[in-house]
Prior knowledge:
Layout: E1 5-14, E2 17-27, E3 32-36, H1 43-50, E4 58-63, E5 66-67, H2 72-76, E6 79-83, H3 94-102, H4 113-120, H5 136-148, E7 154-158, H6 166-183, E8 186-190, H7 194-200, E9 203-208, E10 211-217, H8 218-221, E11 226-234, H9 236-242, E12 248-251, E13 254-260, H10 264-273, E14 277-284, H11 288-307
Parallel strand pairs: 3-8, 3-9, 6-7, 7-8
Antiparallel strand pairs: 1-2, 1-4, 4-5, 9-10, 11-13, 11-14, 12-13
Amino acid sequence: MKTVVEIKNVKKRIGRKEIIHGISTKLYPGEVFGFLGPNGAGKTTMIRMMVGLTKVSEGQILINGHSITTDFEKAVRHVGGIIENPEMYKHLTGYQNLRQYERLFPEKLPAERVDEVVKLVGLEKRIHEKVKGYSLGMRQRLGIAQALLHKPSLLILDEPTNGLDPAGIREIRQYIRRIAKEEQMAVFVSSHLLSEMQLMCDRIGIIQNGHLIRVEKTETLVDSGSHDVLLNAAPLEKVKELLSNRLYQQVENGLIVRAEKDELPELIHHLSKHQIDIYEVTPMRKTLEDSFLQMTEEDQHAYTQTASK
């Protein structure tokens, strides 16, 4: 598969202190890649290096094969992005803002490109109104439209849903996924909203103390292989006796039982055979938040142990 971004053993030093430790990963067309990490983990530094705002101390960042360090202009022309909130001319309409931004490009864009990006982000009905009357969600969408004007291969979004209400968050999420697929670009998203990242992203990279500790498909991170199921069955004491060889926890509406997915049919059959009435068996999947907190806590413990030696 074609690679849009290749990050190769990238390090960043400030003075004698190394704050990014040999990060390597790749981004592909049509995918939404989530970048997660606690405050101070190195997310912003990594983003700034990807757009050339901070120099790479060692290693390479290639965008469509062009190095951000040695071939900056060719590399950055393939990048669009919003770092925090987009800034617009509030006294102009959304359409006028896009036309103004269009004039900054050295190469003339196709005449229909503004209309294409307006449609992509769903602003057709409000694009000719002044930006000062836009909601935060509409300004975010206009910012994304602006970042898409030159048909970038890479779209970088830092906290794209920051400050939005639930309806606005869902709206932005849907547009981000749609843009990635329809424009076949790689979308790199940094956010602290773990539930949204779980719904939005195809893959997740987790950074901790400047180390990229894991990169996985989102579905892999939320599916540990072992499954807890909520079992609502009666009589409860007899159920507990039959499950004495398994891990379980009693809760208000039944038992939470640890079982592999392929063990569930045999487990249900076993209970039924002993005249147990089964009312509900509901899988309880691990969330991205569970995985994130587990991994970062484990890595922080290992980091603290190493640093203390």
